[in-house]
């Protein structure tokens, strides 16, 4: 049975860059690790049911339908974790006009049985600058204070997730120009296992 490592962070923190660095190294080492994007599984299920045409429409579905997709996605990911360690790329929280929604509700957490939670964080000023330089992040533009709040809310939700799963919470700093240090920190924790 593989382990599931949740990897989360606010948009623009460099989560994908860190994950890609980790995946390059685990492949070199011959470790059985899969990078899985939770939203990709939800999108696949929603497309199969003709509920949406693209990813951003998932947020607009009724909440009960979103939760149903989350549970189905978690079931599929849990199957992968029977053979591989999984780096589960997702969000602890989804920021909406109505407030923050949990990215992984209790039922989903119980299915996933997380082993570790990695929160990728950076200086809010750096995150704001990264978002400004990325056309794909236009919808994520926020003031530094809002980014700081979102990172704090992620920490709080990660602690709640840990209560339900028994996972440890690990903050990985991805400071500007120091991605290799973030990759190294995450790899050390993965190599230690459980």
Structural commentary:
The chain is an alpha/beta fold. Helix content is 49%, strand content 18%. The strands form 2 sheets. It has a 5-stranded parallel beta sheet with strand order 2-3-1-6-7, sandwiched between helices. Strands 4-5 form a two-stranded antiparallel ribbon. Strand 4 and strand 5 form a beta hairpin. The longest helix has 22 residues. The mean pLDDT is 91.
Instruction: Name the strands of the widest sheet in spatial order.
Output: 2-3-1-6-7
Q: How far from one another are the termini?
A: 11 Å
Output the number of helix runs.
7
Structural class: alpha/beta
Integer average pLDDT? 91
Number of strands: 7
Helix content: 40-55%
Q: List the helices and strands in order.
A: EHEHHEEEHEHHEH
Summarize the structure.
The protein contains seven helices and seven strands; from the N terminus they run βαβααβββαβααβα.
What are the defining features of this structure?
194 residues, alpha/beta, five-stranded parallel beta sheet, 49% helix, globular
Topology:
Layout: E1 4-8, H1 15-29, E2 33-37, H2 38-48, H3 63-80, E3 85-89, E4 93-96, E5 99-102, H4 106-112, E6 116-121, H5 124-132, H6 144-165, E7 168-173, H7 179-192
Parallel strand pairs: 1-3, 1-6, 2-3, 6-7
Antiparallel strand pairs: 4-5
Helix pairs in contact: 1-7, 2-3, 3-4, 5-6
